[in-house]
Amino acid sequence: MLNRALPQHTIRYLNQVLGGELLHVGPSEKTVQLPYFLQDAYEVWSGELLGQPVVLACAKGWQSIGPKQLAQHAKRLRELLYAPVIIALPEIAPGERKRLIANGVAFVVPDRQLFAPQMGMILSERFGTEPRREQVLVSPATQALLVWFLNHHPVTQTWHPFEEASALGYTAMTATRAVRELVQFNLFELDVRGRSKYLKLVGTPRQLWEKAKPHLRSPVMRTLWTYDIRILDVMGVRWSGESALARMTMVNEPQQQVIAMTTDAAQRAKEAGVCFEPLKLADGIAIQVWRYEPGMQAQGINVDPLSLWLSMRDSRDDRIQIALDEIEEKFPW
Q1: 104 in a domain, yes or no?
Q2: How far apart (Å, rounded) are the C-alpha atoms in residues 327 and 248?
Q3: Residue 240 carries which DSSP code?
Q4: Which domain holds residue 253?
Q5: Residue 56 and residue 161 in one domain
Q6: Burial (CB count <10 Å: 0-12, 13-18, 19+), residue 331
Q7: For residue range 68-84, what is the model confidence (pLDDT) as tens digits?
Q8: Model confidence over 195-204: pLDDT tens digits?
Q9: How far is CA 78 from CA 3, 81, 149, 275, in A?
Q10: Tens of pLDDT along 203-225?
Q11: Which of 94, 141, 249, 295 is deepest in the core (most CB within 10 A)?
């Protein structure tokens, strides 16, 4: 049975706990392109959350879908719609909740619980009290603005991030949230001038970078593969991964080329006839779909060095780690 109020209840709840009108979604036109079993199971809404593309899949009949199926459905929706997926459920039993968390499925139960670690959000269920947000990571939009600042701003300049936000495709509301997050994590001091809010750097850019690291995530949302070399001609593509590392350091060029692009660019490539595969292809091109614009340096052919560092810092390859240290040392702090 379709719970017609579930999308509206979910939107209200997420905006309430996030502290503003930060979720902007509506019924997705791409629903008709989904397999029938997904159309029957979910009302799919798409848009942006915290300045990042998101799909809200509202269950039509939760009792008939088990945690294992939900995990499979979330994975399939993510692959088809090229965006993170949050499953909205009208209710959930404790055992089912544990199994969804164990499988890494992002889900929300309005007024009860939110689990979306990929977006840096976990709300624990608390009975008799208001839920409290436990945020350990800045939002992708905030991270993008911070990386932009480190790449472009002189040390002495007080920062008004709204122009940069517009250039990166973010709204004034998203910029306002970024200001709040950067102050919340003690990365900047707030400087209010009339009705305008500025950010004042405390310390040096290198100190800011070190302080921010624990709150930053890999910009890579997912990786796709293709044999179609036309992907290299898509507007906004940048060399990434080991391909970019080889152009910045002494690391050898990898056997498999690695590029980065936004979700929108990947969608444009798909509409132009480029076929993507979700699994690694031998000798194929690896396409990293990023959470934010990879072209922070307009004149370059690579992703910016700081985002590259974030995308590769978990590598266990010693030669990669040595190269990443070199990137930090060479960066013009």
Answers
A1: yes
A2: 7
A3: -
A4: 220-330
A5: no
A6: middle
A7: 889 999 999 998 988 89
A8: 788 899 988 9
A9: 22, 5, 31, 16
A10: 899 999 999 999 999 999 889 99
A11: 141
